[in-house]
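Attaching the record inline, Q. Sequence:
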Amino acid sequence: MADKTDQKKSAVAQLKSVWPQIRALIGPRRWLLAGSFILLIINRIAGLALPYSSRFLLDRVIPRRDLHLLTLLVLGVALASIIQAATSYVLMQSLSKEGQRAIADLRRKVQAHVSTLPVSYYDSTKTGSMVSRIMSDVEGVRNLIGTGLMEFAGGVLTAAIVLVLMVRISYVMTGVAVGALVVFSLILNKAFKKIRPIFRERGKINAEVSGRLTESLGGVRVVKGYHAEEREQSVFSAGVQRILDNVMRTLDAMASMSLGSTLMMGIVGAAIMYLGAREVISGKMTAGGLFQYTMYMGFLAAPVFQLANIGTQVTEAIAGLDRTREVLTENSEHADPHRIIKLPHITGELAFENVSFAYEPGKPVLEEIGFVAKPGTVTALVGSSGSGKSTIIGLVAAFYKPLKGRILVDNVDLSHVRLDSYRPALGVVLQESFLFDGTVRENIAFSRPDATEEEIMRACMIAHVDEFVEKFKDKYDTVIGERGVKLSGGQRQRVSIARAVLADPRILILDEATSSLDSESEAYIQQGLKYLMQGRTTFVIAHRLSTVRQADQILVVEAGHIVERGTHESLYLQQGRYYELYTRQHGLETNLFLAPGEGDKSDEKQLVGRAGGGTQLDAIGLIRGSGGV
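Structure, as predicted:
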């Protein structure tokens, strides 16, 4: 009993939770819906012309051979049919299209909101799940605004009109029919209680399976590289089986509904036949009246069966809207009431003051981090994997907020700065550059859609994009495929640098942008980085320490703490953690007796020799040597 009460409360709570969404969708369309409802009334009344005229046909036209009345009845039924057809066409056209517009509007709304959610939401939510919320969960709206609404309202209206007409003919037989409807409504109520959570579960399963499929297709090279096709097929097959099991449970419930309703209608039909025949034999009802009543029963039964189908669709729509509501109620990163300061101009000074951070309560990732990065300087972050370097960069980019301490940008607390005034000042070049499935020009202009053609071409020249694009048949209009798959790694990185050059950022983040490239590509890219870093506040996540020797400050991060800081020379002299990382990486353990300067020279010779005569240049050293930052 308690379970039933909980189920009822859950259904009511779910409907209440999505009602504001339903009201928001219906509000702008209220006049269209009101006009449609008037047409619906006309449509359903016109549809009853045939059963209504059947009584006159059997009781008056045929016995009396009244051809004049027959002509009037035929013309009346024909006119009613025309009216019904015309109103059905208008309703289908207007409501179906409006339902699709509502779906499009809701998709735009959900996508726009998802794009404003903080990075922490993306960290904890699968991409496939978000795609499902945007594309699939909103589909059920058409059943609330489109033809589903028309069928539901029309079914209720037809049943109400027919019920009144049936009572006028025989209240005894109508009492039997109403009793059967009550029984059927109880069956429907029980079935919907069972179906509702199944539909909700299906949405979650679809999101999970879609998410894994998206990952598998996106990582097809890794899958094939490890000969894991069969494993991925097995994982997907298991997901499809979960969906199938869910659908089967739904079909079981719907089959039970169909069984109960068919049995009920058969029993009711037999009862009406018996009672009606007795009424005709006793002279209380004419044969025409019985035929008319039987036709009304058909008109009553059809909407009831239709209501069962529409009820299932409405249930699915409400479940989808409930999942959509969960996304829309997530707090946007722009909705932070503390972010009220708009910076008109950013020079690029950043300071961390005793910053601590954790992704999960009780599991600190950073503790008491403090440093200052002046405009026009280079700050390098080095350390073991998982030490917290990327988290520091995430805080610099305002993807997260510190749990303790402050981050200052130009002496203003970053947690109080509006993101739309800060993020445009950022430029990011990652080790794995992300490109969209579009043209070369579109990917470069992504950072500044309003850039002129001249500005785009200048960025391409600086990043040496023009050197390979000019060889393509379609040049800058070449479609590069999903994630830039049609370009080489070096070409993708050059496009990424051109995008950053076009953005003209004040704060630049480089996540070892050249570590995985061949020496020729790296030489081109470092020349682009040389220009890009000039005069900007630059943060470099360095995995290869030879690229940070000329940085203004090097921060050695271990286990969420800055354990050492200084220049390459000072840290090398300390012979601490940085010295250990540097010598281990470059094989200098056997040369510990060398002075720091000599060790550097030895390492420089080693690197030049390895690069084939100096093609593998040091990006930051190159800038220093040419009068850069």
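Confidence is low (pLDDT under 50) at residues 1-9, 588-629. The two ends are 75 Å apart (CA to CA).

More tomorrow.
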